[in-house]
Amino acid sequence: MAKATFLEAIRQAQYEEMSRDERVFIMGEDIICNVFGTTTGFVDAFGTERVRDTPISENGFIGAAGGAAMVGMRPIVDATISSFLYPAMDQIMSIIAKSRYIYGGQARLPLVIRSCLFYGNSNAAQHSDRNYSMFMNVPGLKIMVPSNAYDMKGMLKAAVRDDDPVLCFEDSTCWMSKADLPDDPDFLIPLGKGDIKREGNDVSIIAIGGAVPLALKAANDLARDGISAEVVDPRSLVPLDKELILRSVRKTGRAITVDPAHQTCSAGSEIAALIAERAFDALRGPVLRVATADTHLPFSPAIEKALYPSPERIVAAARQLVGIRQPENA
Amino acid sequence: MNGPDLQRSLQLFERMLLIRRMEERLGDLGKAGELPGNVHLYIGQEAVATGVCAHLDDSDWVASTHRGHGHFLAKGGDPRAMAAELMGKETGICHGKGGSMHVADVSKGILGANGIVGGGVGLAVGAALGAQLDGEGRVAVVFFGDGASSQGVISEALNIAALWKLPLLLVCENNGFSQFSPYETVNAGDIWRRAEPFGMPGALVDGNDVHAVWRVVGEAVARARSGEGATLIEARTYRWRTHVESEESFLAAPYRTQEEVESWKQRDPISRLEEFLVSEDLEKDVAAIRARVEGVTESAITDALNDPLPPVSRAFEDMFANG
């Protein structure tokens, strides 16, 4: 057990799974150059057959990953930044998500498509997408958005062993966060199991990816006001640990979803709808959503930062909710 | 490469005839309102699928198109399971969940017909990559049309397949039409010539001559199996029937002349092979094949018609392999 970063967790997960199973291989743009440090030492360990640089042809190589998976390989695709998934939408949405179903269960597509959520650093609208929500609207894709290095390692290893296509979204605001990473080669966190990151009684804050550390900071601030916030991290959005979320909301009676994605049709919105449908009787106020405004991300830091969820916006939402019950304290 | 021997020619004839007769029956059923959805028939193009798949084993891979019945049957797919799939039956090869545009039998290396034009290309590149990593000498074939040749994924696939020397055949069936638009109105240049800039062998072949297809593909498959990489083959052929069987109900104007269709029917790949076989004194064998194909077709269609429909619960199955 040693402290390591989120990026190092990705490297370790890939390294361990490639060591364990020779059907696992990795490909993407600039893998050998090792841009973000997630393939350090891979060529020496596994050779260039299993560590492949691809042309800048997302449609081609993500499609090829689907085909290789269908014939028994277990590819990991590093698509770099999540906006670069769009040239391959045809492959992801029409082929990878649907092949198993349309062939009546004959096919398995065990592949992992990794990409990072590269926002908050003046990269402007085309590089800053937090786009996992749009993939939730097509059944057939598993989707993980871990919020810390520990979860990342265990979930990515589980994703590589999963027999279905998994989209792994890596929140770059978490890249340098550190955690103790288990050395156990079979350390796995199954997809579909959320985690209570902090227990509380007054309000449930269901936060996604990079919003989890923000929610934890907000919970600290709220504690000083005497508000006990529970922070729920779904960790994967498909499958979604609905029972964990509903159990928390039934306990606290209040819910806020926090999602770095644009608000409309976001994962946070879907979770809000789930709560309204299935825990309405337990709610003592509306389900509030803290998300990114439905505008593109501008370049200038002066106007970009304010658009994302922040501890301040989460605190304000919690105060509003608790205030509905206790207007005298608002 | 020499042409196929007479025994092989009889096999090719039987397979082509099976595709033809199955599709004629299915086309009739569609016209009679017995098939749900849309059907894209392969009639006239049988020599391509047949000449290609004759070189493949069950362990080799093919990815197909929306016009995929011929590829399915040529690669050894079961006629009854295909017919039942087109009828949306429980016994369909995909339990009625894919239909005409998704017939697949992964156990026979058929990675499926595909409703997206060019949709099989990525799959086949990946299958070839898997075959290369396996190192067991398998090959992958992708069939695509002249319409799909305009999809960007083709250029990406040519580059990747050439760069990595993948055991892949890219087989373009140029049937003259991108849906309803004649080839020359939407395509620049010759498709087979696109191989050369990538350093890949390219070949043009008469897609209505099964012997010619067989020879060209035999060489390409041998190259792929021996690690020499991919080949692009353009087979010129013609689609006798509609783009989609329902088109007569919505097309505002014809997009080709009856004379043109008739002129291609004069070059029927099945009649050409039959004439050759008769000239080789194999008339009796031809007659026996005709009778056998009629029997197989009839029982496939009849059995499929009598098969049960799937229960609604089927709709919720096969989303995921794990959970």
TrEMBL record, chain A:
Gene3D superfamilies: 3.40.50.920, 3.40.50.970
Protein name as annotated: Pyruvate dehydrogenase E1 component beta subunit
Cross-referenced InterPro entries: THDP-binding (IPR029061), Transketo_C/PFOR_II (IPR009014), Transketolase-like_Pyr-bd (IPR005475), Transketolase_C (IPR033248)
Start and end residues of each Transketolase-like pyrimidine-binding domain: 4-176
Oxidoreductase listed as a keyword: yes
Organism: Rhizorhabdus histidinilytica
GO MF annotations, alphabetized: oxidoreductase activity
A Pfam family assignment: Transket_pyr
Keyword entries, A-Z: Oxidoreductase, Pyruvate, Thiamine pyrophosphate
UniProtKB/TrEMBL annotation, chain B:
Domain of life assignment: Bacteria
Protein name: Pyruvate dehydrogenase E1 subunit alpha
PANTHER family in the cross-refs: PYRUVATE DEHYDROGENASE E1 COMPONENT SUBUNIT ALPHA (PTHR11516:SF60), PYRUVATE DEHYDROGENASE E1 COMPONENT, ALPHA SUBUNIT BACTERIAL AND ORGANELLAR (PTHR11516)
Coiled coil: none
Function: The pyruvate dehydrogenase complex catalyzes the overall conversion of pyruvate to acetyl-CoA and CO(2). It contains multiple copies of three enzymatic components: pyruvate dehydrogenase (E1), dihydrolipoamide acetyltransferase (E2) and lipoamide dehydrogenase (E3).
Cofactor: thiamine diphosphate
Pfam family of the protein (one): E1_dh
Gene Ontology molecular functions: pyruvate dehydrogenase (acetyl-transferring) activity
GO biological process terms on file: pyruvate decarboxylation to acetyl-CoA
Keyword Transmembrane applies: no
This protein's record includes keyword Oxidoreductase: yes
Gene3D superfamilies associated with the record: 3.40.50.970
Keywords: Oxidoreductase, Pyruvate, Thiamine pyrophosphate
Domain Dehydrogenase E1 component residue range list: 14-311
Catalytic activity: N(6)-[(R)-lipoyl]-L-lysyl-[protein] + pyruvate + H(+) = N(6)-[(R)-S(8)-acetyldihydrolipoyl]-L-lysyl-[protein] + CO2
